[in-house]
Amino acid sequence: MIQLKEIDKYIESRFQRVFILKGINLTINEGEFITLMGPSGAGKSTLLNILGLLDEDYAGEYFFGDKSIRKMKDKERSSLHKSEFGYIFQAYHLIDELTVYENIETPLLYRSVSSTERKSIIANLLDRFNMVAKKDLFPAQLSGGQQQLVGIARAIAGRPRVLLADEPTGNLHSGQAREIMEIFQELHAEGTTIIQATHARENADFGTRLINLVDGRIETDEAIAK
């Protein structure tokens, strides 16, 4: 489904190149649940951004299916970005001017989902996350944990083929964190490909594969025993 070949990401300093990612070769099959782990600065978020088409400033080749991302026109790449990927950001990235309801609705509008279906999907998500009473509030009126839940609801609303999550449970208490990971497990069982970056080893146990990054390189890549 996804193949990265010799991906390098670096910053040019005055005297040398500082590599954030170096020589990344990675194949991700449809339906996998992958966890990226490693110390801060290992390149986890950077790799997620490249996988999610949020960062195009890198060397190497990226194939989605049999298509080279490099050879896609901007419009085709943008369409792929909106139709196939869902994103959960560590910093929420909710739209301040939109209510909880409207934030969750955003990816459904991109996918031209009908009004009736949108209402049904959002109602189910608000109920699932115990956010019905918060649907008309704006992000600034929510706690950090509540904003994270809205970000997760928005990411899964459109049933993306690939869900990318950067520290998805970082701002949640242990009960909420487990609930979110169980939802990920359900999505994975339904066929969603999930790639999460996390410091929490217990989150990795919900998945099928663990990749350890150290200093921008893949140090280990192994299946998770069940």
Could you explain how this protein is built, in words?
This protein is an alpha/beta fold. The protein has one domain: P-loop containing nucleotide triphosphate hydrolases (Rossmann fold, 3-Layer(aba) Sandwich), CATH 3.40.50. 35% of the residues lie in helices and 28% in strands. It has 7 helices and 10 strands. The strands form 2 sheets. The chain has a 6-stranded mixed beta sheet with strand order 6-7-8-3-9-10, sandwiched between helices. The radius of gyration is 18 Å and the shape is globular. The model has no long low-confidence stretch (mean pLDDT 94).
Architecture blueprint of SSEs:
Elements: E1 2-12, E2 17-28, E3 33-37, H1 44-51, E4 59-64, E5 67-68, H2 74-84, E6 85-88, H3 100-110, H4 115-128, H5 144-157, E7 162-166, H6 174-189, E8 193-197, H7 201-204, E9 209-214, E10 217-223
Parallel strand pairs: 3-8, 3-9, 6-7, 7-8
Antiparallel strand pairs: 1-2, 1-4, 4-5, 9-10
Q: DSSP strand (E) fraction?
A: 25-35%
* CATH architecture call: 3-Layer(aba) Sandwich
**Which stretches are poorly predicted, pLDDT < 50 over at least 5 residues?**
none
Number of domains: 1
Shape: globular
Number of helices: 7
**Which class in CATH terms?**
Alpha Beta
How would you write the strand order of the largest sheet?
6-7-8-3-9-10
Q: Can you summarize the main beta sheet? A: 6 strands, mixed
Structural class: alpha/beta
What assembly state would you assign to the polypeptide chains in this entry?
Answer: single chain
CATH superfamily: P-loop containing nucleotide triphosphate hydrolases
The total of beta strands comes to 10
In the CATH scheme, what's the topology name?
A: Rossmann fold
Element pattern in H and E: EEEHEEHEHHHEHEHEE
User: Taking Cα atoms only, what radius of gyration do you get, to the nearest Å?
Assistant: 18 Å
> First CA to last CA: what distance?
24 Å
The portion of residues assigned to helices is 25-40%
